[in-house]
Each structure stands twice: as structure tokens, then as C-alpha cells.
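Model: You mentioned two targets. I'll fold them one after the other.
Researcher: Yes, keep them separate.
Model: Target one:
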Amino acid sequence: MLILIKNDTPESAIRSLVIQLSRQGIGAARADSGGRVLLTLTGQTWTLDEQRLLALPYVEDVKRLTSPWRLANRRNHPEDTVVSVGNARIGRGFCLIAGPCAVESAIQMQAVARTVKAAGAQLLRGGAYKPRTSPYAFQGYGAGALELLAETGREMGLPVVSEITDASQLPQFAQVDMLQVGARNMQNYELLRALGGQPKPVLLKRAVGATVEELLQSAEYILAGGNPNVVLCERGIRSFSQTSRAALDISAIPVLKQMTHLPVIVDPSHAAGSSELVPPLALAAVAAGADGLLIEVHDRPAAALSDAAQSLSCTAFTELAKKLARVRKALEE
């Protein structure tokens, strides 16, 4: 990090800043040229707040030379991270995660779980807590749904993933193998800190208005808490288009793969908002290099209590899984 000091700044102010930085474990090498002073900082500069430095009356400019997401940065961790969830190895090979948006009944879960496992899915998804735009929409069945999800997963031999919305819910998720942070909670920093302090893998979704840099900053919260098992998920961003629920940012896949060592998967269901759009978006994500997919499947989509329009039927999912396998095989040739 570089700090450019304003002309005619008192020497005492510069010395005071250098001492303050040293107390934080930051070294400052000084260069003088034509009355201007440039401080080159070394050490844990990713912990410094640029805005606080810029607020100092004698600081003219601050330039960050390294990213603030040090733990997520591929430069500091060249090898791909592989996140283990049961027998699945996300980041090594391809991982297919599927299941209903919301856990509704034992019959529903059994039917969907059998289908997705037969089609090659390695994880079973199901929502128990559903943050919704409208307070009147179905919000999920809570702890009871988590128990049903975990029970179905055990019976089918599939690890399970479900969305957590508050740190206070952690005890209820004891039987859940992977914790999902939804797009609405990507910047819920108290929740991210709590997930960083526990060992379960975390599936972190990108918010609709977030940049890839902001997604990595959120991942850094979890990594900094001591939990290295983070999987990033692109699920579409807000755009001017009205033809789909969101605009799936396909470019984010290769960009993130360059920037970070963390696995990157894609949720085409939430980007599409329509079941007809899910297959082409899923195929495009695979072609772009995604490490996996998160897809909503329901045994009776028209009767689904949540996200009915974008849920694939069991038959449609089976057909899509076959196409995905063909695309993956073609990419390997």
C-alpha cells in the first residue's frame, strides 16, 4: 500500500503516522521527492481501512497494491481449494446439488431425493428458512423441515445443504452437512463471522447487487474466522432486462477462478426464474468452467410452495443431467 502525503505537511505529523502504523505491525518506508513524501507500507496492509487513512488531513492519496481479501486471493494460495461434503469433493471434478426450494413433506422429499441421486446429484438441497421479499409469502417450516431434510439425506446416502439466516439458528443445523448463505445475507457480517467460527462447509451466494470483489470480501470474513471450507455461488445479478428473474453473470465464473482458489458453482434456477431457462443457463455455466450447479427440483412444480415457476420436474432434471454429462465429456476431450 502507498500513502502520498500532502505538500508542506509537518514532520511531526508524518512521524506520528509512522508510529501509529508500526503499532499495528505495519512498516513504512519513506521516499522524499520535491517536498512530497511517499510512504510504502509493508506487513499486514490488508487490515488497513483506506477510508480512514484518506480522512487524515495530511494524506493526499492512498493506493492499495494488494487485495484486501488476502486469504481468498489465488496469489497467496495458488492451489485450488477442495471442499469436502460427505463423499463429494467440490473443486475437484464436478458437483451437482439438487432438491426442492423448500422442504414441504416426507413424500415430496423422498420422491425428489430418489430422482436427483439416480441422475448423479451428490448433495441434496432443501430450504427450511426462506427469506422472502413479501412478508406474506411462504417462509419455510423451520426446524421441523431441517430434521426431515437430514433424515431423507441419511436414508438416500446424500449429504444435505440448507440456508441459514441467523447465527442463533446454528444449533438447529447440527444435522445439516453444509450451510448456505443466501444472496440477501451475503453482507450479513455477524452471520459470516459466526460461520467462520464453526467447522461446517459454507456455500456463499453472491448478492444481486454485489460485485465479485464484494463477494470475495464476504468470503474473507468466513476464512478469517478460521473456516477454510467456503464455496462461492453465482446466482444472477440485477440488470435492466425483464426477460429473466436475474442476469446470470457467466463471466464471473472465469473471473473468480482467476482471482480466487475457492470453488465456484452456479445456481441457474434463481437467475432464470423460469424452468424453461434453467437448462440452457446450466449448460452455459458448465461450459464456462463452473465447479458445480445448484438446481431446484420438485416432484410437482405447479404445487410448490416456493419458487414454483423455476423448479424443474423430476423428469426435466433427469434429462438435464444427461445433457450436462455430455457437455462435460466434450470439454474433457
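Model: Target two:
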Amino acid sequence: MIETGAYNYINVLSQAASASATRNEVLSNNLANVDTPGFKRQDVTFESFLNSALAGHSTLDTAVDNIRVGNLRPSIYTDTSSLSYRLDGNNVDVETENAYLAENQIRYYTLIDSINQEFSRLKTAISKS
């Protein structure tokens, strides 16, 4: 994390990418345990924390400037609300997990691309100075 105002967006995007990487690990673990009796799937919450941190500001710039990036951490939870249709108590559905994994990978690569674009804008601003 870079501690200057010029990198606020990059810091927020970096935390979101880190949360996405954590979710990728959790979803992969779910798939690895698809045949483990009694295993309950896990997932990661991050978007709701980010949304609440951004809420209540007149502009996105103001919201990002006021975020304490160090407080934005993903939270891993066990999904016990999903009914298990299997006799062994496992609630992992391979197709659903694969869909979540594909969605998460797209999100991760989009975040990395956004970080690269922010650095490119900063590089352009510095070189024109």
C-alpha cells in the first residue's frame, strides 16, 4: 500500500484484487472438497464492506480519499444456509462453484487491468510535467 493521496484509487483497487485472490483460493478449496462428507462451502465477503466505506460521500473522489484502506479486509464465512441435497451433508455444487470461480477470475483480471491503467495515467501525468 502506497501512503500518498495520488495512489488512493490504486490502493482501493489493490485491496479489491487481494480480496478477489482470496476468494479464488476459497472457491478452489470448495471444489477440492466436493467429495468430503459434511463439508460446507465457504465464500468471501468484500463488496459489502467496500460499498459501505464508499457510501455517504458526494463524489467518488471524496469517498476514495476518506477510505481507510487498511480497514478494508475480506471476510471468509461458511455457508451453512445452503441446503444439502446430498446424504453426506456436503453442500458444494461443482457447477455453481465453477461459475463463481469464472466470475471471480474475470473480476480479478479487470481489477488488475484497472490498476495498470491508473499507473499508466500517473506515468503520463509525470512525463508531461
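Researcher: Noted. Anything on target two?
Model: The chain has a mean pLDDT of 88.
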